[in-house]
Amino acid sequence: MKTATLASIALAISISAANAQTIGVSMSGLDKFRTALLNGVVSHGQTISGLKLVTENANGDKELQKQQVQKLIADKVDAIILAVSDGDLGPQMTKMAADAGIPLVYINNVPSNLLDLPDNQVVVASNEKESGTLETKQVCALLKGKGRVVVLMGEPFHAAARARTQDISDVIATPDCKGLQIVERQAAYWSSDYADQQMQEWLSAGVKFDAVIANNDEMALGAIRAMKKAGMPMKDVVVAGVDATDDALAAMVAGDLDVTILQSAVGQGAAAVDAAVKLIRKEKVPRENNVPFELVTPENIATYLPKSQ
């Protein structure tokens, strides 16, 4: 009986080892949002029995990220979750994973080769048409359809930055918002420090504006910091961002930030892990998997404080 019991235990361990899966996670960098995104992947992965996660951070270095993905492939991971800073890296990353027969899930940033992805490669992101549109429509409403606007953009080659910036222009082209005018538009690379510096330059140059529309919260917060240092009353300017990070929500509670858009890092992280596991099992997954954006304002912020990144 004892021998049979030991044999049963050994068989159970063997089956468990056979079912164990490893997912490699490659992040282009770890700013506030992407850290929350990685945490969303890791926390959900920990709820799946037998799943192991191996994480890599490229610190903004495209060549290093390619090397890290090559190493994950050489280590024979079962799937890869990939957050690229540059969607144009997609074709190279797709080929590397496809040649190795390893499922690939792009997270947050849409690759330029979206329409050419093989069946075992998918995208988990949020529809950027919603983000910049929700953000700018709310700014338009707060300004009653008239005013001067400055725009802070993310990395110029990032799909989300391009889409959110185009959303701003599209909303301003509508009849209700045609009274808005973009007086300045510059890239601040998702960074609060770059945004702070850019805002200081605008203020020093005497640029007049009624609203700041930023592609993300970090840049909105950097702009706020610069304006407050310059003694500019925050009640006199509308400031908007995207991501609903904890720092952004705190700024909204303080009365400094007027608009943000929840991009659920937790939701994207969990959806990416689930997609990777399904692909490993040879299950069919839609090419595009969208996690909705949500408008956050001082009027409804109480609902979103528990969801902060």
Automatic annotation (TrEMBL):
Major location category of this protein: other
Stored PANTHER family: D-ALLOSE-BINDING PERIPLASMIC PROTEIN-RELATED
One Gene Ontology term of the molecular function aspect: carbohydrate binding
Lineage: Bacteria, Pseudomonadati, Pseudomonadota, Alphaproteobacteria, Hyphomicrobiales
Keyword set includes ATP-binding: no
Start and end residues of each Periplasmic binding protein domain: 23-284
Protein's cellular compartments: Cell envelope
Keyword Signal: yes
GO cellular component: cell envelope
InterPro entries found in the cross-reference section: Peripla_BP_I, SBP_2_dom
Source species: Rhizobium esperanzae
Keyword terms, alphabetized: Signal
Protein name according to UniProt: Ribose transport system substrate-binding protein/inositol transport system substrate-binding protein
Protein family membership: Belongs to the bacterial solute-binding protein 2 family.
Transmembrane domains' residue ranges: none
Domain of life of the organism encoding this protein: Bacteria
Signal peptide: 1-20
